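pasting for ref
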Amino acid sequence: MKATVLFVLVFAFTVVTFGQAPAPKADELAVYIKEHYTKREVQIPMRDGVKLFTSIYEPKDKSQKYPIMMSRTPYSVAPYGPDKFKTSLGPDYQFAREGYIFVYQDVRGRWMSEGTFVDVRPEVAQYGKAKFDESTDTYDTIDWLIKNVDNNNGRVGTYGISYPGYYTSAGSINSHPALKACSPQAPVSDWYHGDDMHHNGALFLAQNYSFYRFFQPFTTPSDSFTYMKQWKGRDTQDGYDYFLKLGGLQEVADSFVAGLGVRQPYWDDMQDHPNYDQYWKDRNVLTHLNKVGCATMTVGGWYDNEDLYGALNTYRHIEKQNPGIFNILVVGPWFHGGWARSEGEWLGTAYFGSETSEYYRVNMELPFFNHFLKDKGDISQLKEVNAFDTGANTWRSFDSFEPTNGKDTALYFTENGGLSFTQPSKAGSNEYISDPMKPVPYTQKITLGYPRDYMTEDQRFASTRPDVLVYETSPLEADITVAGDIKPSLFISSSGTDSDFIVKLIDVFPDDYKFPEGKKPPENSAFSVFEPGGYQMLLRGEPMPARFREGFEKGIPLVPNKATYLPFTMPGITHTFKKGHRIMVQIQSTWFPLVARSPQQFLENNFKATTADFRKATQRVYFGGKTASAIILPIQK
């Protein structure tokens, strides 16, 4: 969501194509657009009379009819003015030369559009509970465009990354007949269970705090260029120290007053709804993705720290709720939006063997839209699920996200920090002391934000801490490919009455591993000087608050020191653990300041916690016998 703001306003063209002419430089493409397109700005009326500001770029060549490519955004369709042109058009650099009519719209209540903005507006018009929502605004916009833009061929495609990805998927509900193709990319879907705000109800603190310092409300179009309130709070890049001293979530909420001079209403709304109540249910677009009539290609990144959940589950819900439509999923080795603004060969210290982003753009994205909007292009390479294997560095295809040729297999925790596919007969437990005032950092970097490459960061800095449990296999005797959701099945206890348990799945490289000859990661990488022997590559990490072990609608306290079953599901992976590598699992109770700290004592609303509420707790993870903890991996045959 946050990184997309930069993408909307600035796009760096740093790609090399496969079998095609080199991608144009940014200034070359900007010149091309001005030479070959006209621009006009209009206010399109919605069914309730509200007008939405829309920029339309039309090809000067009128020798053929063109489909319409539309993106709706809360981040501004800038630059404004009929003589001010975007320097890129469409999902990637290819589209301007391919020839489309490009449409960009400020959503209701943002920037130059009229109306009132609502964060992830509930999709309720289809049930007769409201006159309008994002699906009707999309419908009305398409209807106007088809009737009022000359030289269009009657077909429309929509796309967007992150928040604009949400507007793409929401806009496909009860699809307008002219909407023939849409591509929700890293789409916001469910802010409680897995997208930007929360994971399993645990608040992702650093990224949301950073976002809501920027994403402030305004009420009229005239406010849109003056609404940004300058931050007057503490100014530091040391996020660990900043949030540690800031305190509990009540103090975090209050800090907006000191920093901005006003309360942040979106943050306060979240604070008032700590459980999965009707507020969050109304904003979960997944359950409302009905009557989708257009071809859909959902795109995500395995290392998207914001909306991987949204990509995987948007695809799943559209598939389940709209049988028979063309509906596919693409997931590559990318950070949030990385398929659009990176080469996709590296992410921090992780190497993926080729420029995966350019492969996607040339062989998947453009062919998809050309096929459904222009009746041209070969989409034979597009399968039901197109997933990049981040261990074997190759694309794989499956007939569903849970590949049918795999089997959920338990990898059991054993004594002395082992992992085994055989359930241990000896029972016991490992313990650590979790201190919220000395939490486990999620990155070695000094940063106030959330660096995109923490998702592949070497975890050796964490594995040496006494408040992190480490379990690992012996070196593997053969490759093991895992494809699908990861399912921890834990037995835990705590001396407190509430705690989080963070599970991380890691690929441990052999001690003698070296990058391929001639390949080195970016200069700011930890391995830009050293070879990566022993690299503990993070594949997936996810928090689970023990309070929600029986459901997310109501928290239930732990009974101190009583062994308790804690199962949950982590977003999936497609990854081959190579022969000679080890599989590692780390367990901890803080992951700071990425995840807000639990007070480790039960509060009805832990969003009201202050520093005084934090408690140390002794945590135990059990193995063997009737309390055999394991991590369930969907292993391919």
